[in-house]
Amino acid sequence: MVGALAGSQIGVLLLRRLPAPVLPWILIAFTIFVIVSQYLHVPTREGAVSLTPASCALLILVGLCAGILSGLVGVGGGSVIVPGMELAVGAGDLIARGTSLLVMIPTGIAGTVTNLRHRMVDLRVGLIVGVCAAATAPAGRLGATWVSPGVGAILFNMFLLSIIASTVVRMRKKARAQN
């Protein structure tokens, strides 16, 4: 959590400093990286996390990366923490997903507070989406136990490909409108 909290502040700072046209490319590059990593590593159900000085350092690094990307382009939990925990410390996919959800709470609050100060939050939209996400999370947890890790990776990659496609479409529309 320490890394994620610090990282979210760094990400929010970068969000205000980087040129807007760069942000979609960061999202696309990161999403492609996640898709490729899903094919290089198939998650398993087994895998407890043993806390050692080395694993704690790796977890802080995973959290820092997740926080930066969360503050910068709005991703981090499922796409950074889950594979990061699986690859760095050998966590099983269900433990990694559950831990990711826990980490999102303080990280999201910290990033939101900073974004509120800079008037970069739509509270109404956030509350609507947040309430719907909280209401459907138990069904998602149940579904995660029914789907094998391999199928889960394929479904997640399909979702990520749709994010890339919608980002490219929005970028092209914006470019046409400016020309």
UniProtKB/TrEMBL annotation:
Keywords: Cell membrane, Membrane, Transmembrane, Transmembrane helix. The keyword Transmembrane helix applies. This is Probable membrane transporter protein. It is a multi-pass membrane protein. The chain crosses the membrane at residues 22-42, 54-82, 94-113, 125-144, 150-169. GO terms for cellular component: plasma membrane. Belongs to the 4-toluene sulfonate uptake permease (TSUP) (TC 2.A.102) family. It is found in: Cell membrane; Membrane. It comes from Schaalia odontolytica. PANTHER family: MEMBRANE TRANSPORTER PROTEIN MJ0441-RELATED, MEMBRANE TRANSPORTER PROTEIN YJNA-RELATED. Its main location: membrane.
